Amino acid sequence: MSHATIRDVAREAEVSVASVSRVLNGHDNVRPALRLKVQEVASRLGYVPHAGARSLSLSRTGTIGVVLPDLHGEFYSELLRGMDREASDRGLHMLLSVMHDRAGGIQALHAMRGRVDGLVVMAPQVDPDRLLAHLPPLTPTVLVNCAPHHERRAELRIDNVAGAAAMVDHLIAVGRRRIVHIAGPEGNIDADERRQGAAMAAARAGATFRVLSGDFREASGIAAAATLLPDIDGVDAIFAANDMMAIGAMVTLKRAGVAVPSQVAIAGFDDVPLARLVTPALTTLGIDIAGFGARAVTRLIGLIAGGDDDATEHRAPILIVRDTTPIITSPNNRAQQGEI
Amino acid sequence: MSHATIRDVAREAEVSVASVSRVLNGHDNVRPALRLKVQEVASRLGYVPHAGARSLSLSRTGTIGVVLPDLHGEFYSELLRGMDREASDRGLHMLLSVMHDRAGGIQALHAMRGRVDGLVVMAPQVDPDRLLAHLPPLTPTVLVNCAPHHERRAELRIDNVAGAAAMVDHLIAVGRRRIVHIAGPEGNIDADERRQGAAMAAARAGATFRVLSGDFREASGIAAAATLLPDIDGVDAIFAANDMMAIGAMVTLKRAGVAVPSQVAIAGFDDVPLARLVTPALTTLGIDIAGFGARAVTRLIGLIAGGDDDATEHRAPILIVRDTTPIITSPNNRAQQGEI
DNA sequence: CTGTTAGCGCGTTCAT
DNA sequence: ATGAACGCGCTAACAG
Lengths: 340, 340
Hints:
By secondary structure, chain A is an alpha/beta fold. Chain A is built from 13 helices and twelve strands.
């Protein structure tokens, strides 16, 4: 025996399918007796509407598609958690799709057709023009952390510039004046924006600002710190473009006998789980990842509802998550500040 | 202008919808010229079949439903990663649903009707009879880590009892005799089985065994360790029911100046990626989480295909993944062992 | 208030 | 090899 359909319910309750539909969708134009009868039969038969058929006739699926570049690590579980929270609060389901690097990843987008009411796409690794070309043309879509492009689209990004600037402002506020930035790989949008924000804040305050190159890996943080060691007295703060490089730098300095963070403060970016477990805990920048995911969904829901989304880029604020940097107030330092 | 349908393609190519359908589904009973024409028009119109309509007529959705109790932490991202790997290899999509604790969580199951071809349900926190009663009767389903029940069903479980016992045996083998277990939430089947396996092994060896309550979150590990601090000399090993609580305990003890793991060994359960990054690396129990998820999906696919699944419980073995616990051989400890 | 009926978009007989 | 017509299960517009 197959699943009960709306017809089975109608027959059993001796009414029309239309009435059953009305009852089940909570329309109020039904006689109470009929309503009761239908409800009784429906629950007795264990009737559950067929979502596929329903969506075909409503042309609404009650599902949003989420396209992610990967699922590795806590970032994605947090992101999904936030998205799910918002989606399920609004009675929406989530169809998850990972855009694997291998060829044809793009077609994951096509497969969403007829399955979802809207899309949240996070694809920092995909050529933006190619991505946009393959996006379902009529499906509301929110782009998350995608590379810059030329279309006007609803978009959500992390505010790297403001975050990095806030960190440098902070370092300066606690008395650091000779700042080294370990940058991420050239051409990476996040890395470039972070360097730019940091440089801007340093320039604004008239602090010494030097940039070393890195590649987001711990090893490059180690290498950069090694470069600094001979002249470490000329440095009182290192701000790396991500946590792993910061940790690499921290380990290297500590091993060389440099006092961290009193002599040289170290700050990172991302707030990876490891950041608070190293000693001293890493001062870093983080976003509320789950909140970020929830916000993407909220915006998508607005788009689906046809609200007046401004179809432009929103930037999620970044906050200083943890601060283990002591304030420098020694006469020596005051003198240095006076030099400026 | 709306999305192109099969009719648009048919009209434009001057053939019938049946022929378009045949071409697009790779049937071979079509004249090459017609095939070419249809393909040309389809791609020119950017035609993509409507998955909803397709599934209604095929009564196959090409989607599997994944119901999870939570998304917090790396365990779930790994599990999802494994499931996704297997599902996308088989051309299946994943509909993700979190069974929140709040009322109506059960109805997440109903909502899957007509959306999926099969279900992977992980629900360690739900009353099994209630769960089974609400499972879609005709939908192939693989139960993952659900509480014991009386139906014969395809099921996948982690062998918590044997794993926990193995860990306690190990701690005892390296000379620890006064063991504290930080348990997971009461009523959670995983938590209960782990506690039970640990208690059994401790009793068998005649070791001191004390249980503190926790809830699988890091904070509860911190709290439990704080409780122990005043009398930490009476403890030489802490075995937490999961890694996050173990890490919380580790951080707390280290911060209080307790030597970890020489004075107090700490062990966890799950082997989350973070476990090997803390210092010292966490001794823990693990399964190949992604592999576990993949296996659940593989089995579900077999069920959907109507293969001869044995509709019974499979248990994934658990291994001690990493061991940083030094062996205690001091006279002091020998004396203690001699006391028994 | 209630029933009848026409789609939603597609795959698939059954004819031809 | 091709086309016409039906049905998948449901909602909504239209009659009554």
